[in-house]
Amino acid sequence: MFYEVVEDGSGFDAVDADEPAAADLLDAFEAMVTEAAANVEVDRLVGEAGLSEADATAARDGEVDGMSVADAAAVLAAADSDRDADATVAEVRDHLLMGMATAVLDVDAIAAKIDADLTGQEVQQALEGRTAMTLGQLAEILAVIERRKP
């Protein structure tokens, strides 16, 4: 889902598929989550998606940089009953790992190229789901991977 903004544009023309910038990816993620959150009542985001009221309000206001990928996926799932939040998160992780293999990147190389203050070990933990990854971190990691793919 989130990686689709690079693959097919998904209506987000600001993302250059050949040279995606982390800021452009984050803007596309923000638009996606904000649009979905606007179509769901705050109470439902809190109850169904499991967000705090503050996070639900932030999602509706477009403040998603620090939102976890899992919470963002829950917002998308709340807005579209055909989506499953856990499956979306798993797809994102799979896409990142396959992209790393295609781009011949390891976690240390990614950590060295992103602005997020993450070590290679922390990047690996985020990719494996052992620690939460924010949309901001996802945007940076995905931008590095996509720029290095042949």
Automatic annotation (TrEMBL):
It holds the Pfam family DUF5791. InterPro entries: DUF5791. It comes from the Archaea. This is Uncharacterized protein.
